[in-house]
Design a protein that fits this description.
28% strand; seven-stranded parallel beta sheet; 773 residues; seven-stranded mixed beta sheet; globular; alpha/beta; Glucose Oxidase, domain 1; Rossmann fold
């Protein structure tokens, strides 16, 4: 890397020792203030500005006063509009957001302490059984070891919260901790008394949205959730126990979050629609969450386009959170199944993909001859479809036959074919018969969230029996019973089709996603004034509903992190992420490799599942961990050919140095990318592991090499004399390129000689298109 792009340690020392900020920086600021020029009647936009706080003159009591003085200096001579401060940031990042003209921004760049600036951007938002599917139980494992997350504060950055939801009742909760610095911010339709010993804090941030939309009136200018997304995600991560929860009779049971005894704090950064979330508001929410004292932050948001790390607010703010020991979990995004569709590939956070769970929803078809067939449905009512005629026309058996749908020979239960899930809903709305049996083999049916027609979907194999009966019986008849829930569905989990895949576009050198968690058809809390289902043209409400997305997977992982934080309060964010990754399960409940729904159920690669499905109980006792410090991440940034200002935008502090740049981060996974011009390569990684088991032990390496690769591990055995001892090893990949470029993958297992621990890391060798990533 060009040395001009590094941060030489001697320069940093010089900045610290030879330029006293009390006089020299104040003099520079005065020169800046006197030299500012202005332009009137020009277009203005909101910008995020990053500052080096070292340059703040001591005459200013706070960073806020410093920023205000800088902005006030740009007042035009005719006293017209001035740059408007939107937010001041000082915890997860250092700087502010304000509305500038381009000329004013160019002037600001000359101010002492200026680091970088970029325009405000819009970001998008990406249970009764999932805890059982993850094997959480009150008898043994992570739940009792962490006391269900007691003592941990989870901050959720989202659309707000519906505080009256039963998921936020405070039965059994302990008192709000004294270390908590947050507040319950009141506002329209949100009294501050609505917080309690479960929902211990709420704040809302919409100044960035208002700066971008000055003539818009916010319908709910408080932390109340008008979208439903934040209520859903926060109840997943740490909702309290709620008996009798269901979605119109489906998935009935006792709802609870992954960490049901953890405290919840909501930071609303989206004023209304999910498309109205601005980075300046997100940064303000994240900055405040860290300052308030949260332990874990859950972010079910993402960009839908490539943003470099030094302009990515999630990357910038989460670095500051990580420095202070706060664990950050973020959704991978919902742009799958294409490779390279992850835009949140941030090395210092946990990136979470989405999977299915072993639960399906069904209706029972009973034929007139007594034969019973189970099919899929989510019709939200206990409809009476009893002893109706079956309608089957061989020449018009396809549902696209509008004549059969709109003018059936008689009323009853229609039998017809549907090609894909996408064509199912519009077809069902056209049908003029009481009910229908749809024949469809599309596996993506498992991801459909709602179905407003009183029908059932069956596969082609079951359809043979139904059609045979309909054709041979003189008066074929059938009945359908709805609201059935089936547990133990196999195979599960599978990778959700929508879940974004790696390599991560923001930084492809780290394997992302890190792991996956339940994300499809997750039942969680919902505002009662939002649509939860429909029957025809009738909208229905419910306190609990199903949603699918990596937005639902992320809070599952965040909840597991909260439990681990409760059980191991001294573990760093990197250690918690390592424990979750190296114990993740790459197998489904048939003990076969996890399959990819987006690739016709082919074997899923780590670019889709990361290390596998999160396994909370195994993560409690991982055996070995891969730790990392903030300086380690800075070393990674220093290897990326970034400028000093770009690195400082993320790392904030001049105390970090670029004396040891390295793209070999101590990470619990391995990825090697090659271009079309590559014929063969050799890559060596160095890793350091810490023994977190009890006492002396020995681990032996077991390798499954990707195809056309040879893997060497040295040493093959690592010996620990005591707990918390560190040992290092090298892993070398030699790869000979084949004719067809495809993703190859394998794994490294460190197996303890006594069999107590197995520490697994995925290995990926993948083609890499520079034009795409």
């Amino acid at each position: 890397m060009d040395n001009r792009h590094r941060i030489p340690p001697q320069v940093l020392v010089a900045n610290r020792l030879l330029v006293p900020p009390t006089l020299a920086h104040l003099f520079q600021l005065i020169l800046f203030l006197s030299a500012t020029s202005h332009s009137n009647g020009v277009e203005r936009s909101t910008y995020i500005v990053h500052m080096d706080k070292f340059y703040m003159p001591k005459i200013f009591p706070t960073h806020h006063h410093w920023y205000t003085a800088i902005l006030d200096s740009t007042t035009p001579n005719d006293h017209q509009s001035t740059p408007k401060l939107v937010y001041a940031y000082d915890t997860a990042l250092t700087g502010f957001s304000a509305v500038f003209s381009q000329d004013e921004l160019n002037t600001l760049r000359k101010c002492p302490g200026f680091v970088s600036a970029y325009a405000d951007k819009i970001v998008t938002l990406h249970t009764t059984h999932t805890f059982e599917f993850l094997s959480l139980n009150p008898v043994a494992g992570l739940w009792p070891a962490s006391n269900y997350g007691e003592g941990v504060i989870v901050g959720v950055i989202d659309t707000g919260v519906w505080p009256e939801s039963r998921s936020f009742n405070d039965r059994g909760m302990t008192k709000v901790p004294k270390r908590w610095k947050g507040r319950c911010q009141g506002g329209p339709d949100f009294n501050s008394s609505l917080c309690n010993s479960k929902l211990i804090g709420v704040r809302y941030f919409n100044k960035g949205f208002m700066a971008a939309n000055p003539n818009t009136t916010i319908t709910m200018n408080s932390a109340r959730d008008t979208a439903g997304h934040g209520t859903h995600t926060s109840s997943i991560v740490a909702g309290n126990y709620v008996e009798g929860a269901s979605h119109f009779g489906y998935a009935s049971g006792t709802a609870r979050g992954v960490a049901p005894r953890a405290w919840v704090a909501m930071y609303k950064v989206c004023p209304g629609n999910l498309e109205e979330c601005f980075t300046s508001d997100y940064l303000a929410g994240m900055d405040r969450a860290v300052a308030d004292g949260v332990d874990v932050v859950s972010i079910s948001m993402a960009f839908s386009y490539v943003v470099p790390l030094y302009e990515n607010p999630f990357a910038i703010a989460s670095f500051g959170a990580m420095e202070k020991g706060v664990f950050v979990s973020i959704a991978a995004g919902n742009d799958g199944p294409s490779l390279g569709s992850i835009y949140n590939g941030i090395p210092w956070v946990l990136t979470v993909g989405a999977s299915s769970i072993d639960r399906s929803f069904s209706g029972t078809v009973t034929l007139g001859n007594g034969l019973t067939i189970t099919g899929w449905t989510m019709f939200p009512a206990s409809a009476l479809v009893n002893d109706l005629p079956l309608i089957y026309n061989k020449t018009q058996s396809h549902c696209n036959s509008t004549g059969l749908l709109s003018n059936p020979p008689y009323d009853g239960i229609l039998i017809c074919d549907v090609d894909t899930v996408d064509s199912l809903r519009p077809v069902s709305t056209l049908s003029k018969v009481s009910s229908a049996i749809f024949i469809c083999d599309d596996p993506q049916l498992a991801e459909v969230e709602d179905f407003s027609y009183p029908g059932v979907v069956i596969g082609s194999k079951d359809a043979e029996v139904v059609i045979k009966y309909a054709k041979r019986s003189k008066k074929p008849r059938a009945s359908i019973k709805f609201q059935q829930t089936i547990l133990g569905t196999k195979a599960a989990p599978v990778v959700a089709c929508y879940s974004s895949r790696g390599p991560a576009q923001s930084y492809p050198g780290i394997l992302k996603p890190d792991l996956m968690a339940p994300g499809s058809l997750v039942l969680a809390a919902w505002p009662p004034n939002k649509i939860a289902a429909t029957i025809g043209s009738l909208d229905l409400s419910s306190d609990y509903t199903f949603l699918s997305g990596t937005s639902m997977a992320c809070p599952h992982a965040s909840g597991v992190a909260a439990l681990l934080k409760g059980a191991h309060p001294d573990w760093s964010p990197a250690a918690i992420r390592s424990a979750m990754m190296t114990t993740a399960n790459p197998l489904d409940n048939t003990l076969n490799p996890i399959r990819d729904l987006g690739l016709d159920l082919e074997k899923a690669s780590p670019l889709a599942i990361g290390a596998g499905q999160v396994d909370p109980n195994r993560a409690l006792d991982p055996g070995l961990i891969y730790d990392a410090t903030p300086q380690d991440y800075v070393n990674l940034l220093c290897s990326m050919n970034l400028t000093k200002a770009q690195i400082l935008t993320i790392a904030r502090l001049n105390s970090y140095t670029c004396s040891n740049p390295s793209d070999d981060l101590n990470y619990p996974s391995f990825i090697v990318l090659y271009t079309n011009k590559t014929t063969m390569f050799t890559r060596t990684f160095q890793r350091t592991v810490t023994n977190v088991g009890d006492g002396p032990t020995i681990f032996k390496a077991e390798v499954t090499a990707p195809e056309h690769s040879t893997i060497f591990v040295w040493p093959e055995k690592i010996i620990f004399a005591k707990k918390y001892e560190k040992q290092s090893y090298n892993l070398t990949i030699k790869y000979m390129k084949e004719k067809n470029d495809t993703v190859k993958f394998g794994s490294l297992l460190w197996v303890e000689e006594n069999g107590n621990h197995t520490v697994r890391s995925p290995i990926v060798v993948s083609p890499f298109d520079d034009d795409l990533l």
